[in-house]
Please model this.
Amino acid sequence: MSSTIVIGSQWGDEGKGKLVDYLASRADIVARFQGGANAGHTVVVDGEEFILHQIPSGIIYPQPECVIGNGVVIHPDTFAAEKQELESRGISTEGRIKISGKAHLLLEYHRVLDQQREIVRGKGKLGTTGRGIGPAYEDKAARTGVRVMDFHQPDVLRKKVIENTKAKNKILQALGSEVTLDPEKIAEELITHRDNFLAMENDVSLYMHQAFKAGNRVLLEGAQGCLLDVDHGTYPFVTSSNTSIGGALAGLGIGLKAIDTVLGVVKA
Model:
């Protein structure tokens, strides 16, 4: 294995986790390039089950560096909880997780908006996980998103989050929702994650380029499946990111020649 990508060839849950787990045991770097906490890989090590939603599953092994690309949307609270859970079970994460400064953050207003929209849709529900993935990618496209690099300017970040929350409250009101979000609270809670994220921030595109050039064994870990691709899947019953190979290129900032092997997983 030099550089391998593992993707789901159907709607997810094909058993990618087992294959990723097997390959991660011999990888130098395991990278995630799209999706958020709506995805997950379940791996079993020595009879112990680990369910990972945002941190690449290579973290279970002692040697791989784990990379989260710009194509991923990260929910700070659940990410911190996932990281803490690993540490409590004896898995070292210190210095092993690298997060692109360009990765977008999924905030509480995204989750609330996602859930309230599903309620309004009634029988026409899309079947979302309600974790806010769609609204987070909407903000990314609308150029109002919050990124990891925004932690460098906490005052600017706080102002942006407050403005975004107020805008989401207007949408919730238009939907007929009785939920009202507290802009100040959401901003302050986000700022508490500042030091943790800045310690993991990295220029992922450069890091990956250097890794390929050095001949490191790289595993690209896909989430969901190709038929959930926002462009190529069973639209509108899809996720909000590109789950196929193109998503890996854009989601990590790498070129097509970087990928040697593509493994598509199916279940019969």
Observations:
- The first strand starts at residue 3 and ends at 8.
